[in-house]
Amino acid sequence: MTDQTSSGQSTDTINKVPIVIVLISGAFVTILNQTLLGTALPHIMADLQVDENTVQWLQSVFMLVNGIMIPVTAFLIGKFTTRGLFLTAMTLFTIGTLSAAIAPGFSVLLIGRILQAAGAGIMMPLMQTIMMLIFPIEKRGTIMGMFGLVIAFAPAIGPSLSGYIVEHAPWRTLFYMILPIAIIDIIVAYFILKNVTKRTNPKIDVLSIILSTFGFGGFLYGFSIAGSAGWGSVQVITSFIVGSITLTWFIVRQTKLKEPILEFSVFKYKMFTLTTALGMVTFMAMIGAAVVLPLYMQNMLGFSAFHSGLALLPGAVLQGIMNPITGRLFDKYGARWLSIIGLSLIVITTFMLAILTDQTTFTYIATVHAFRMLGIAMVMMPATTAGLNVLPMHLISHGTAVNNTFRQVSGAIGTALPITIMTTAAVPEEGINGIIHGVNVSFIVSGIFAIIGLLIAFYIKDRKEVKISSR
User: In what residue span(s) does the Major facilitator superfamily (MFS) profile domain sit (predicted)?
Assistant: First the structure.
């Protein structure tokens, strides 16, 4: 019996390799942009004559628009063809990249980032959905491992790559180098990408889209400014109140609609709920270290931006190498023991980063972080795949949208919370080690979250157990 996509086309007739290359290339350049501008912001400030609060919007707006677009992708996947949606997402991203590269002023650069984020927001869940549909269940771990390589490796190399480029070339080079890859990807996709998702032609519920935008957008905006504005500021509190009310309204409305924009019934599947929680904890751990360690190395140890990015590179490379390997291990053994071993590694290495001093070496930081990223590679994509595997075909697109949305929220929390803890727990009157104390406390809190994740991992069932329980 041949495998079929939800559109009824046999997956045996689809040449999967070029499709995977096109998808991964597109995802790589779109996801790379999440962290690519970090070390370039001072150069953009000087060139376009804007202050720190203004330039920070280039980062915040990308995350915000990304987070707003992801929840509606399940609806878009049902409304449009695979090729049409992919080409639209990549075209939006490419136009945004070109606009940013030639931007005469900050406003055009910001519009470019918004267009980039809109394309990227569609790309992530669309790519996962296509992968889950064209590959049989016994091969999904391997292919999702390849996807994991992209979503982990791309943002991880962003800071060091950006740091190197802006030291040797204008900041616009960051956009010009991505532009040809995006254009080539669109051309190749036009000729080889197949329509594999099923068009259900759902009705547009405008109110749901508005509620989703204000709900997820409110939370993401609140978390994105909490680190700088303070958790008790009017902006942050207002954002959380608006986000809470509209998101609750959105969820209640989805349960009553015949054709919901986002199907929250995916949470009826226990494995999906557990693995989504696990993915959030793991992603928070990854993002938190990526934010705190460069600040610690630059502001407290005196390293350059490039060298602080370089310290994270071994971990990014190791995670990139390990993701396909852990994907294969998942196909063979399931997610349970991979997650338990991986989270044990994360717990140990997180507490090893909670004993930093002004004498801590570059080698120690790079080595411990590398082993931490190995643990993350063992958890993130195997857990995600295990959760999506239990969903029926018609809920896969909703599962990927929910999964990516919650990962985006956890990324926002993982960015804001460690910085807040670090600044609150710091003791400036005790000198540099008093300030470093704040960094250590932030890693202790991160370690507690990792322990919670480890406890959750013991409840994960492997594939054979899930099959038996779902019969």
Answer: 19-465
Give the closest residue to 152 by CA, choosing from 333, 327, 387. Answer: 327
In the three-class reduction of DSSP (H, G, I as helix; E, B as strand; rest coil), residue 335 is classed as coil
CB-side neighbour CA atoms (13 Å) of 400: 26
Give the span between the Cα atoms of 151 and 410, in whole angstroms.
14
d(C-alpha 303, C-alpha 295), whole Å:
10
Cα separation, 96 vs 93, in Å, equals: 5
Superfamily of domain 266-471: MFS general substrate transporter like domains (1.20.1250.20)
User: In this predicted model, what pLDDT tens digit does every residue of 108-157 receive, in sequence order?
Assistant: 999 999 999 899 888 888 888 888 888 888 888 888 777 777 766 777 67
For the segment 420-436, what is each residue's pLDDT rounded down to a tens digit?
888 888 888 888 888 89
Cα 84 versus chain centre, distance:
23
Q: Considering only CA atoms, which of 190, 133, 150 is closest in space to residue 16? A: 133
* Closest among 337, 340, 378, 377 to 463, alpha carbons compared: 337
Query: Could you report the per-residue pLDDT of 357-399, keeping only the tens digit for each?
Result: 989 999 999 999 999 999 998 998 888 888 988 898 888 888 8
pLDDT at 227: 64
* CATH tag for 1-201 (out of 1.10.287.130, 3.40.50.720, 3.40.50.12780, 1.20.1250.20): 1.20.1250.20
Among residues 469, 471, 466, the alpha carbon closest in space to that of 137 is found at: 466
C-alpha separations of 82 from 92, 309, 380, 446 in Å: 15, 36, 26, 39
Q: Which tokens sit at 300?
A: 């407290």
Nearest to 21 by CA among 130, 133, 180, 136: 130
